[in-house]
Structures are given as C-alpha cells and as structure tokens.
Design a protein that fits this description.
The chain is α+β, with helices and mostly antiparallel strands. The chain contains 8 helices and 31 strands. The radius of gyration is 36 Å and the shape is extended.
C-alpha cells in the first residue's frame, strides 16, 4: 500500500518538479497503535519524518525502549505532494515501525527519538502504554503479532462488526466494535448511517477524531489495514434475541479514486445477540432488574451533630462496573428523620468497561431530639461474571440532635402553645377594621385623566403600531433576494469561512481547515453562477467555468486549488501550519479574482 504511494509520488515529482526546501516544513512525530496491550501481545510504534524534497538528514537515534522486547519492522520511503498558486510542494516521508512486547505489567514509557535535519535537532514526544492481563486489553491492543482472524476475506474493502460476546444476561455489558478493512489507502471516509441498537442501552466508548488510525491484521490469509470507526458498550434491556444493526459508510480509496467520481457505499453485517433472563433462584428481596454489574455502596453524613431546625446531607455513593445510569436506589426510611428526594450525579470513567460512580445526596431533617440511627442501607444486585446475586451494604450512621422536644418527653396534654420549640414560623396576624365607603377617598383618578399628558399617553400605542409596520416593510425591502444581494451575502460568507479556516490553523485542525477552504470557494462560485457545483467533478466544473466566462487561467486556478484541498484533507500525513497559511492567502487572492470575473448567462 505504501509502495503504491511512493510510485505515484515519484510520478508527480517528474511531472511537477520539486519545491525549494523549507526548514519549517519538517515534521518528526511518533505514534502508538494502542494505549493498552496484553502481556502476550504487541503494540506498534510508528515514527515518521517528513522533510522537503532534497533535504539531507542524518543521525537518527531510536527511542529508549528498555521496558519492551523490540521487533524492528523496517523503514519505508514515500512521497507526499500538494499544489497551490506558487506551484507544487513535494516532500519525502520516511516511516519506521517497531513491534513492542512489554516485559512487565503497569505503565511503560516509550522515550524520545532524535534526528538531525539541516543542522537542527528534532525529537519526538514521549509516549506511554499500559500493559496488563489479557482481559484488560482493548480491542486491537495486540497488533502485528496477534493470530490471524478466523473469518473469510471479503475483497478489497469491507466493514465488519465484532462483539466481545454473543450470549449475555439482561443488563450485562457487551462491546460492539465497527471496523473498516482495506487493502488500499483511504482518501475519503464518511459515515452515512450509524448502527441501530434497538433493545439496548448504548454508551459510546470510542469515535475517531480527525484522521483514522490503522493497524495491520491478517484475515483469511490476506493482510489488511484496519481502522476502528466506532466502539459502543451495549446493555440489553430485555431477554430474547436482539440484533446489533448495520453501519453504512461511503469510502473512496486510492484505487477507486481513478475510475469513480463517487465513493463506494459499504455496509457491515448485523450481529445477533442471545440475551438470557436473570435467574429467579436466589433473587433477594427489593432487587431491581436494572441493578446488574459489580457494585459497592458507601454512605456518610456531612454533619453528625444538629441543633433544632438544622438539616444534614446524607451522601450515598454507588461505585463499580455496569450501566450506572440505570442503577436504582430507594430513598431510605429513617425513624425520627425526614428524608427528602435526592439530588443525583453520575461520573462515567473512560475505558472499554463502563463504570464509575453514581452519587445520591439526601437532605435529612430531624423530627425529634436524641441520638438517631441511620440503619444499614442495602443495594441488591446481580453479578453477571459470577452469575449470582449479591447485596452491597453501607455502615450504620448516627446523628445527635439537640434543641427539639420529643413527643415522649412532653407533658400530657401539652400542645404547641406549651413550648416554643417545634412551632414552625407562626406569626400572629394583624387585623384591622374593614371600613366601607360609598365614594372615592381621593380625586387622583379625576386629576389624571384631565391632564394633557394623559392624551399623549393614549397616542403612544398607535404610534408604536405604526412604527412596527414601517420597520417590517423596510426589513422586507432589505431582505429581497436580488442578484446583487445574493452575491454580497456569498462574499461575506466566503470571507467568514476563511477566517474560520485561519482559526483551524492555530488549533492544528488540518482536516477542518481544508474543508473550510473547499466550501468557501465552491459556495461563492455557486452563488455567482446560480448553480449547485457541489456534486460536480473537477473536470465538469472546469468546463462550466470556461463556458461561463471565467477564462482558462482562472478556471485552472480554481480547479487546482480544489484538487489540492481534496488531497490534503484526506492525506494520511497532515500538511504543516506554514503550508496551510500559504493556502489561506492563495484562497483569499483567488476569491478576489473570481469577484472580478464578468459571468456570462447560461446558454
């Protein structure tokens, strides 16, 4: 796959010629294929150096890898190119890969690699990987050395859905992974439809941000590059046969781009899941069907001593693994304390196994004095790994209340009047004599409506109504979609997209930058021609522009800019910040050229 990139890169070098070397274009980076790995697995380290064509570099120093058994997998050379207003930019790419097998458990460090380019030293960032037991490794943790997958190969390109288990209990987590298998480089990727998971509670575990990350796998004796598109934790809500639905995506590969203007639509196959009901044997009293997982329960009071009228907060924390959002805990009933409905907060910890904490905060208000006991709180749950029921319990808590008179200590017949304690904010009403009059007690009303200002006040609503009508007419006139207004709006929109693109450069978001440049040019051209140019190929667009008066040079400049955007947006190695700033300046100048074009009417 990388060999085909190198061949094509060499062809473009011959056709376009090389660009002068620029030191700011040097990229030296390291990446791991996964952040966790099993003790018997292997994680892949990729170190990539990108330099302008013809730049000399030497003294590559590999990183410190003393905590791993290292399996070097070779060095590969390729070319990367882009084109713009100032010509072509060709860069050399050198990729080194290493297979790393951990020597011990725990958090392991991958040191910095060093290289000298043009007399200047560069180094990669340090990386870490966690090594653990086989059950702790995420999908795809063991990469180059894992056994070949026992599924038949399905051609050049396909989507596949895998689950870590196909027979689970109600409420037990299963992990569904949706992956893209390819034998050619991916230029464009777009999700058309996400999988349906009817009958499951779903939690997203992973979704790629930016470019896809690939690993090598052997399927049916054929080697593929595999990228994870989506991971979800699924919790079945009912027993029976449930289905994890298909995922649909549009993909354009390096191979299909030459004979098809559109991407290829791919669908994964649905996966059936057998969901077992929770067993009846051993089910404890008070069990709720949502309480499935491995849970623990703790409780504490923020205050252990209260005086009359004060309240305390009883905090109960459910901690563990499972669908914590669905966990149900009953409000405790405590003699001598009034317990209100709780405030609930959830904190889900990242990872392939859903877990974290769910916190209940109960407000408790004492109803009598003395030493009040909060009994042991219980949370019955089902542990699917052990396939049995268990009960999580808290410790007993005590709160001492003073300043309240309990019912047992009050003398017989004593009510609220016998003591001020226990009476909740009772105020004596102030009663005044009602006096009925047949006439007004003042002449305020008569004085008001006889004033000249009162007549002016009556005119204010009518004047406001006329102002609203006039404003609506003027706004309607200004919003008329004349051709000049449309072009003015399109110009503002295009300039706005360029400003957004410059923000993407500062944030390092390369794919979003190239997308904004592409949309700014296409939308402005579409408004100027009165056409939708989004679905047109570059060859069709160039022909249309020349017919409508753009001229061969301007049309070629537009098509060249759009072609460079497409290539850079989906290239595996992102262009540098300097190149993106240069492209933004070229796009701004190109919009000025387009604005000066005298467009011909369509034939």
């Amino acid at each position: 796959m990388r060999g085909s990139i190198a061949v094509l890169g060499a062809v473009f070098v011959v056709l376009l010629g090389g660009a002068p070397a620029r030191a700011e274009d040097v990229v030296f980076d390291a990446q791991l294929s996964a952040d966790t790995v099993t003790m018997d697995g292997t994680v892949q380290l990729t170190i990539q150096l990108i330099v302008p064509r013809g730049t000399r570099h030497a003294r590559f120093v590999p990183p410190d890898l003393h905590e791993f058994d290292v399996q070097p997998q070779g060095v590969q050379q390729s070319m990367q190119w882009s084109s713009g207003k100032k010509g072509s930019d060709v860069r050399e790419v050198e990729t080194r890969t290493f297979g790393l097998r951990p020597k011990r458990r725990g958090l392991l460090r991958v040191g910095e690699a060093h290289v000298t380019v043009g007399g200047r030293d560069y180094q990669t960032r340090p990386l870490t990987v966690r090594a653990g037991a086989a059950a702790d490794a995420p999908d795809g943790g063991a990469l180059p050395e894992k056994a070949p997958e026992k599924v038949p190969a399905r051609g050049e390109l396909f989507l596949r859905t895998t689950v870590d288990r196909q027979r689970v209990y109600v409420g037990e987590q299963l992990k569904a992974t949706f992956s893209l298998y390819t034998k050619s480089d991916i230029l464009k990727y777009r999700t058309i439809a996400e999988p349906k998971t009817d009958g499951f509670w779903s939690e997203e575990l992973f979704s790629p941000q930016g470019r896809l990350s690939y690993e090598r796998r052997t399927v049916g004796g054929v080697e593929y590059s595999v990228a994870v598109l989506l991971k979800r934790a699924l919790f079945p809500l009912q027993p029976g046969r449930l289905v994890v639905g298909t995922m649909e995506s549009e993909v354009t590969t390096f191979t299909t781009a030459f004979y098809s203007a559109e991407g290829q639509n791919l669908k994964s196959e649905p996966v059936a899941i057998e969901v077992r009901p929770l067993p009846e044997a051993g089910k404890p009293d008070g069990f709720v069907s949502q309480n499935v997982g491995k849970l623990a329960l703790t409780a504490h009071l923020d205050r252990e001593a209260l005086s009359g009228g004060e309240a305390a907060t009883l905090t109960v924390i459910v901690r563990g693994e499972g669908n914590l959002r669905g966990i149900k805990l009953k409000t405790p009933q405590v003699e001598g304390l009034r317990v209100y409905e709780p405030k609930i907060t959830e904190r889900i910890e990242p990872g392939d196994l859903v877990g974290g904490t769910k916190t209940y905060e109960f407000l408790v208000l004492p109803q009598k004095a003395g030493s009040l006991q909060i009994p042991v709180l219980e949370l019955p749950y089902f542990d699917p790994k052990l396939e049995k029921y268990a009960v999580a319990r808290t410790d007993k808590l005590t709160v001492n209340v003073t300043g309240l008179v309990s019912a047992s200590s009050a003398p017989p017949g004593a009510g609220p009047s016998a003591s001020g304690a226990g009476v909740e904010n009772v105020l004596a009403p102030e009663i005044r004599t009602i006096r009925a009059r047949r006439t007004l007690s003042s002449r305020v009303g008569a004085v008001l409506y006889r004033q000249r200002a009162f007549r002016i006040v009556l005119l204010v609503p009518a004047l406001l109504f006329l102002a609203v009508v006039l404003f609506d007419r003027v706004r309607g006139f200004l919003k008329r979609e004349t051709r000049r207004a449309l072009l003015r709006k399109a110009k503002w929109s295009a300039r706005g997209r360029l400003r957004v693109a410059e923000g993407h450069v500062k944030a390092g978001r390369a794919a979003e930058f190239w997308g904004e440049i592409d949309r700014a040019i296409r939308e402005y051209i579409g408004a100027q021609l009165g056409l939708n140019v989004t679905g047109r190929t570059l060859a069709e667009l160039r022909e249309t522009l020349e017919l409508r008066g753009y001229g061969p040079e301007v049309a070629a400049e537009v098509v060249g800019q759009l072609e460079a955007c497409d290539f850079a947006r989906f290239a595996q190695v992102a262009p540098g910040a300097a190149e993106m700033r240069n492209t933004a300046q070229q796009a701004r100048a190109l919009l000025d050229q387009i604005e000066r074009v005298r467009v011909k009417e369509a034939a």
